């Protein structure tokens, strides 16, 4: 069984420096984790609906 992912929380306002020089930015990490969570949720929904 695959581990269920928790929905990620967006970074706090002061977590991002806003300078654009960080690679990866905390927002990049957040959006990547959010995408993984959404994919998993869609797979779970598909299994339930089948």
From TrEMBL:
Highest taxon listed in the record's lineage: Bacteria
Record InterPro entries: Oxidoreductase-like_N
Domain Oxidoreductase-like: 6-45
Pfam families named in the record: Oxidored-like
Name of the protein this chain belongs to: Oxidoreductase-like domain-containing protein
Organism: Thalassotalea nanhaiensis
